[in-house]
Amino acid sequence: MRKLNLGISITLLIILLIGCTFGNLSLDHAETIAIDFAEEYINENDLNIAISDVKVFDAARNDEHNKWDVYLEVEKETNEFDLSALGWVSVSDEEEVIEYYLWSE
């Protein structure tokens, strides 16, 4: 009887662990996907922006749409607030970029 209970417990634990891996995308992973997408965007559009200057300055979870909105900025030498330095990337729980607004020159 103890072996049966132990077997059931282990099976339930495995199911729980597998179920947790298919949940919401983590913030860290969403930020990584957004930065990678920004790098591709910069390269494809020949923008004069160093990827090392692109930083995440905020992120917000939208559970209704199962996505993270990751807000990016290009760090500049000046202290002036510049809207052209801001952008955002929406990353779904399926690890896909579903919307974005990034820089242009």
TrEMBL record:
Superkingdom of source: Bacteria
Query: What name is this protein filed under?
Result: Lipoprotein
- What is the species of this protein? Halalkalibacter okhensis
Task: Identify the taxonomic lineage of the organism of origin.
Answer: Bacteria, Bacillati, Bacillota, Bacilli, Bacillales
